[in-house]
């Protein structure tokens, strides 16, 4: 019976393990690209995009783990707010992608 409960606990925390692995991979990739050429506008934008994606993933994971409606409401607002920054940095990355230096008007 104890072995079954251990397996059940692992299955319940498997989504946390996947989210943590994904977030750490995104952050490592973002910093690896940034440190490859830290003066490039594209690399800076990719770093901000990866950090924003990580924040979005954290808020999104926490938002479906809470049990009270009040805290879920505030976390969903944080998810939507971070999704706005996520979309902005995605647009900026796609807009300036192949260029080393870019001046915004």
In a few lines, what is going on in this structure?
With 105 residues, this protein is mainly α. 81% of the residues lie in helices and 0% in strands.
Q: Name the quaternary structure.
A: single chain
Radius of gyration: 18 Å
Helix content: over 70%
Based on Cα principal axes, name the global outline.
flat
The total count of helices amounts to 4
- Quickly give the structural class: mainly alpha
- Overall pLDDT metric: 88
Strand fraction: under 5%
Largest sheet: none
Low-confidence stretches: none
Distance between the termini: 66 Å
Number of strands: 0
Order of helices and strands: HHHH
Describe this structure in words.
With 105 residues, the chain is mainly α. Helix 2 runs antiparallel to helix 3.
Task: Describe the secondary-structure layout.
Elements: H1 2-12, H2 14-36, H3 41-63, H4 69-96
Helix pairs in contact: 2-3, 3-4
Main traits of this protein?
mainly alpha; 105 residues
